[in-house]
C-alpha cells in the first residue's frame, strides 16, 4: 500500500461484517503489530456511539480508550475520535437525539491530524460497511473519502460466509482496495469452525484475490498483544508497505513510545 493520491494517508481502514465482531480489538492488534516493527502508529475512530462515566465522572468510549492504549504515540481521546456520541445506537440516530450532526469534513480533517503525528494510521469504522452517518452518506462514503485500503473483520459465527462475501462485494463495487480480512472467533465453540474458515479462505481468494491476515481465537483476555500474535506478519508487511521502507523509529534503532 502506497501513499494515496490526494489524501497522503498511509495505513488501513478497518470495517466489519456487522457490529460487535471485534473491529476494535483487531485494530488494537494491528496497532501493536506496527509498534513491534518500530513504526509510529495511531488509532483513529471517526465516530463512536456509546459512552459511560468513569470513577471521576468523565464520559468516555471504551473503544476509543482501547485504541488510545494500543497506539504507539500519545494521543488524546478527542484526537482519536472526532465525533463521540453518548447513546449506544446507530450513529445518525444518536446524533439526532443529541441535537447535533456528524461533520463529514471534520472527520476527514481528524484523520489527517492523526496521520500527521504518525507513520501509519489505523482507522476503525462504526458498525458495518454501510452504517448511516448523516443524511445521504454513510461509513462507506467516508472510506472513499480517505481512500485507505480496507481490512475486513469477519465475526466467525453462523452466517459469516454470506456476510463476508456480500461485504467484500460491496467494498469492491465502490472501487475500494480490499487489502485482506481477519477471522475473529466471536463464539467459543462455533459449529464447523474449520469448514467455515476454509470456505472463507477459498472464496475470498477466488472471488477477490484477498488473503486472510490472521485467525484470532476466542480469547479470555483479548489484549492487543494477544491479537497481534495471531496476525500474519509477512502479509502485514505488504499491507502496510513495510517491505519498501522501515519506520523511522526502527531505522534509528529506537524503541517505539507506548501510550499506557
UniProtKB/TrEMBL annotation:
Source organism, top-level taxon: Bacteria
Reactions catalysed: (7R,8S)-7,8-diammoniononanoate + CO2 + ATP = (4R,5S)-dethiobiotin + ADP + phosphate + 3 H(+)
Subunit field text: Homodimer.
Matches recorded under Pfam families: AAA_26 (PF13500)
GO cellular component: cytosol
Keyword set, alphabetical order: ATP-binding, Biotin biosynthesis, Cytoplasm, Ligase, Magnesium, Metal-binding, Nucleotide-binding
Top enzyme category: ligase
Primary localization: cytoplasm
GO molecular function: ATP binding; dethiobiotin synthase activity; magnesium ion binding; protein homodimerization activity
Binding-site positions, Mg(2+): 24, 63, 124
EC number: 6.3.3.3
Pathway(s) served: Cofactor biosynthesis; biotin biosynthesis; biotin from 7,8-diaminononanoate: step 1/2
Cofactor(s) required for function per UniProt: Mg(2+)
InterPro entries: DTB_synth_BioD, P-loop_NTPase
UniProt source species: Brachymonas denitrificans DSM 15123
Function: Catalyzes a mechanistically unusual reaction, the ATP-dependent insertion of CO2 between the N7 and N8 nitrogen atoms of 7,8-diaminopelargonic acid (DAPA, also called 7,8-diammoniononanoate) to form a ureido ring.
Localization, UniProt: Cytoplasm
GO biological process terms, semicolon-separated: biotin biosynthetic process
Residue numbers binding ATP: 63, 124-127, 184-185, 217-219
Active site (UniProt): 45
Family indicated by similarity: Belongs to the dethiobiotin synthetase family.
Origin organism lineage: Bacteria, Pseudomonadati, Pseudomonadota, Betaproteobacteria, Burkholderiales
Protein name in the entry: ATP-dependent dethiobiotin synthetase BioD
